[in-house]
Write a structure and sequence with these properties.
Oligomer: heterodimer
Order of helices and strands of chain B: HHEEEE
Radius of gyration of chain A: 28 Å
Structural class of chain A: alpha/beta
Order of helices and strands of chain A: HHHHHHHHEEEHEEHEHHE
Distance between the termini of chain A: 77 Å
Number of strands of chain B: 4
Number of strands of chain A: 7
């Protein structure tokens, strides 16, 4: 049948119709040769456009989760939608780094103002929310803000690329799309985790501290930080974490500084436990040991801890639970919980091997403590 | 917001050109086959070259056009709560309930009636599909 069909078309040989076919074919070939790049750009633009649509869905969903969380936990008198929409456009201008000397206190100040502003706003739109719920709403709003920001950036480059037909703009954004979309999907999962108060992968360090503290009395020693004193192999061990189960991170720098001063410069080791980014091919939940300040963020807290440690010559040891960036914002995986138990054993071994009886040790469980008590 | 992907006319022209190229490539391949049968080897190889190149490029362009966008809202992950009795060691896993948090004192143990503790909260792992040859 196909043979009959082709035979009905005049053969590309002698007659005029065949010549026309030949010509069109060559013309199309020329078009693909000359305008190949433009065609490729249009194809890339379509791909970016699809991603923009997907990001819009994720951003809208996070906004919806924020509104329902505020309504559910905060029982506001008025509809909070307008205030939340304003909140989603919130921005932070970090201090200028042209003269970096003394920049850390400036960053701390801006971050403190930001945190205070967020908390005040949330208490206004969610008056009935308890303290831990305020932190959870803050987490939900942070995620919604982040997703909205990603969506607006990608849309900006999509529209800019479409307007200018600049190959470099379109290509750059198209090449990064898989990573951006993976991160956005993970943030979307985090939004629900914060709304329900479920622990996230980032809380691995906080969970290590919580499990060590369990059953002992915890005392607030700095902003959002609780500490417990316990004895391991006849050593005085202070275990620190952010106050749970709300979505808090706390000021570890201030807490460590206070403890070191309180102990009269007798601290012989600081052990930091945190979740750390794993490389592709590594198993989630595996643990590793090292030295230094294992902590993420902008660097202000790391600076404070390093300042105290270097001033009093305290060795800084670190234990990390490996996980991907996506695992760190999504609800905690079982493999991470197994890693936490392994990390506790490593901390205890470090204490036994690196210190002697009567020494004072500080163990700091870093990470967002949403869904983790103490 | 004027975000809808414009250039739909350009896209349509592009699509039509691909289809035309696909048909012409098929025709060129058929002519190549006919020429080969008639013993015209030069003409056969000429049309075969054009036909196969055209077919490959148009099929590639068609696959590039197939962009499926997932516009469904992401499905909520199933989260489980693990409860343990510190006295008798009874262990239970149930769906996460609002208000659960790790190290919270939970419901009484059905065996010894002592309060239990939430020891873990984690996302339910979905069973992975069998690995294909190319994975």
């Amino acid at each position: 049948m196909i043979q009959t069909l082709f035979e009905q078309v005049p053969s590309i040989g002698g007659d005029s119709l065949g010549f026309i076919f030949n010509l069109i074919y060559l013309l199309l070939f020329l078009i693909f040769m000359l305008y190949g790049q433009k065609i490729q750009m249009l194809s890339m633009l379509r791909e970016v456009g699809g991603a923009v649509d997907r990001l819009k869905v994720l951003s809208d969903e996070a906004r919806g989760v924020s509104i329902s969380s505020v309504k559910e936990m905060g029982k506001p008198d008025n509809d909070p939608t307008e205030r939340i929409d304003q909140f989603l456009e919130y921005f932070t201008v970090l201090p200028v780094g042209l003269d970096p000397a003394g920049i850390v206190p400036k960053i701390e100040h801006i971050l403190d103002v930001r945190h205070k502003r967020f908390e005040d706003e949330i208490r206004k739109i969610a008056p009935a929310a308890a303290d831990s719920q305020v932190s959870n709403i803050e987490g939900v709003l942070e995620v919604a803000l982040g997703l909205n920001y990603i969506y607006r950036i990608i849309r900006h480059f999509y529209l800019l690329g479409k307007k200018t037909m600049s190959y470099i703009i379109i290509m750059q954004i198209q090449m990064q799309l898989p990573l951006i979309l993976r991160e956005a999907e993970a943030y979307s999962a985090a939004s629900k985790a914060f709304a329900h108060g479920q622990p996230i992968g980032d809380g691995a360090g906080a969970l290590v501290a919580a499990k060590m503290m369990h059953g002992k009395k915890a005392k607030i020693i700095a902003e959002d930080i609780v500490a417990t004193e316990l004895s391991i192999d006849k050593r005085r061990v202070f275990v620190l974490k952010a106050e749970g189960p709300g979505a808090k991170v706390g000021k570890y720098g201030d807490a460590i500084k206070k403890l070191v001063k309180k102990c009269g410069n007798k601290v012989s080791m600081i052990v930091m436990v945190d979740a750390a980014g794993k490389f592709e091919g590594e198993e989630t939940g595996t643990t590793a040991e090292g030295v230094g300040t294992a902590i993420g963020g902008i660097g202000d807290i790391q600076f404070r801890i390093e300042e105290v440690a270097s001033k009093y010559k305290i060795p800084l040891n670190a234990v990390v639970v490996k996980e991907s960036v996506i695992d760190s914002v999504a609800p905690m995986k079982k493999a991470i919980i197994k890693g936490v138990d392994e990390a506790i054993q490593k901390v205890q071994r470090l204490i036994s091997e690196k210190t002697k009886r009567g020494d004072v040790i500080i163990v700091v469980g870093i990470g967002n403590t949403v869904g983790i008590g103490q | 917001m004027a975000l809808r992907r414009g250039g739909s006319v350009v896209f349509l022209v592009f699509l039509v050109s691909i289809i035309v190229m696909l048909l012409l490539s098929a025709q060129a391949l058929y002519t190549s086959y006919s020429s080969f049968k008639n013993g015209q080897m030069d003409q056969a190889s000429y049309y075969f070259l054009f036909g196969s190149a055209g077919l490959a490029s148009s099929l590639y362009a068609l696959t590039k056009l197939r962009i499926r966008v997932d516009l469904t809202t992401p499905k909520e992950l199933d989260v489980l709560t693990e409860i343990e009795c510190g006295k008798c060691g009874f262990k239970n896993i149930r769906r996460f309930a609002k208000g659960d948090y790790i190290l919270k004192t939970a419901e009484n143990c059905p065996k010894c009636n002592e309060p239990t503790t939430i020891t873990a909260i984690y996302q339910e792992e979905k069973e992975k599909k069998g690995k294909g040859l190319l994975r």
